[in-house]
Fold this protein.
Amino acid sequence: MVSKTDYYELLGVNESSTNDEIKSAFRKQALIWHPDKNADRLEEAHEKFKAIHEAYSVLSDPHEKAWYDSHKSEILTGSKGEDMDLWSYFSPTVFPGGFTDSPDGFYTVYDELFETLNKKENADVKEKGKIVTRPRFGKSENTFDNLKLFYNYWGNFTTNRTFSWADAYNPSEAPNRKVRRLIEVENTKERNKQRKAYNDVIITLVDYIKKRDPRWIKFTEEARLEKIKKEEQDEIIRKAEEQKQKEYREEYRKQQAERYAKEYKEKMMKKGENESNDEEEEIKHSDEESDEELLWCDICRKSFVNQGQLNNHNNSKKHKQAVQKLVKEKYLQKKKQNNKTQQEEEQKKNKKTQQEEEKKKNTKKVSEPVNLQESEDSDGNDKHLLNFVKSKKNRQREDSDEFELPEPIKKLEPKVEKQEKPIEEEKKIGKAKQKREKKKAQANILTCRVCKSEFDTKNKLFTHLKESGHEKAF
C-alpha cells in the first residue's frame, strides 16, 4: 500500500518542472505501473497506478499544486499538536474501497470524518449552549439539495474551538502578573494562528473532495445540460412569440385596410359623385388615423405600433447609418448631374466658338495702305511699293500668301473696305484662354526692323525686304 509518498517522487519530477514535463512523466509512469502489464503484482500495481493518477491530478492543477507545495511537510508527516490528522485525507489511499458505501469506501470515510469534526466543534461550545447541527456528507444516494447544503456550509467553515493545546507557554508558571499578561498575549497570537490554519485546511479539503465527488460531478453535469436545454426552449418560445407578433401585426394591417376600403366604398355610395371633395377629406382623415396606429419609417421600410418605438428606432445606430447612406447617394447623384450639365455647356460653348472662328476665316479682310514709297531700280524702271498694315483687332490670315502689285500710278488714295458686322458677338472667354490666344497671335506676327511694318506670312516679309531694299540693313 502506497501512502504519504511525495507526489514529485511518484512522477519522477521536481518542483520547478513545467506542466509539459509533468504530463510526460505521468504518461511514462502510467505505462510502467498499468495493472495490465503487472499481472504478477496486480495489487501493488493497482495501488501505485491510483497514486500516480492522484499525483498528476494535484500537480497539473496550479491552485492545488501551490497549496501542496506550501503544506507538503504537514501532508507527509501528519499533524503537529492536533488531536486529529487531516492531512492524510488529501489522498485516495484513505479510501481503498473506492467510490462505494463500504466501510473503507469514499462516502463512508468522508462522512465519518465530517461527523467527527462536527462533534469536536460542539464539544468545545457545549457549556455555552451553542450546539450546531451541521450538514452531513452522506452516502452515495444523498440528494443534490442536501449535497449543496453540505458544500456551502463546510466550504465557508469557521471553527469555534478554543485551540488551547496550541499555547506556547504555561501561564501558571509566570513569576509575576506582568509576565503572565505577556504569556497570555503570545498564547492568543498562537491560537489565532492555529485557528486560521485549521480553517484553511478544512476549506481546502472540502474543495479537494468536491472535485472528486461522483455525485457532485453528476449533479453539476445534469444541471449544465438542463440549463442548456432550458435556454434552447426559451429561444424557441421567443422566436415563436416574435412570429406570433409579426403575424398579428400583418393581420391587423390587413383588417385595417379592409375596414377603410369598406368604409370608403359605403361613403362613396351614399354621397355620390357630387360629394367627392367631402369623400377626399374623409379618406385623408382615415389615413391620419391609420398613421396614428401604425407608424412607418420610409428609409428602413419598417412599421411601429407607437411613437416610443419609432423614437427608439430613429435613435438607433442602424437607422442613422441608413440615413447617412441615403444622403451620400443623393449628394453623389446631384454632383454627377451637375458635372454632366457643365460638360454639355462647355461642349456647346466650344462648338459655337469654333464655328465663329471658321466664319471669320472665310471672311476676307482688307487692310489699310499706310505708306507709299517710290524707288528706282538699276534699269531705270519705277516701281511703287505699298505697305499694308492690318488692324490688330481684325487681323486674320488671307487665303493666298502672295498678291500682284498694281501698275505704276501717280497718286493712290488709301482704300478702306468696310467690314461686315458679325451676326453674333463672340462669347466671352476666360482670362487664361484670352492670354493664350493673344500669345498665339503675337507669335504669328512678323515685323520689319527698318520700317516696323508687320506681316502675317514669311513670303510677304521677304517680298517687302527685297523690293524696299531693307534687306541690306541686315
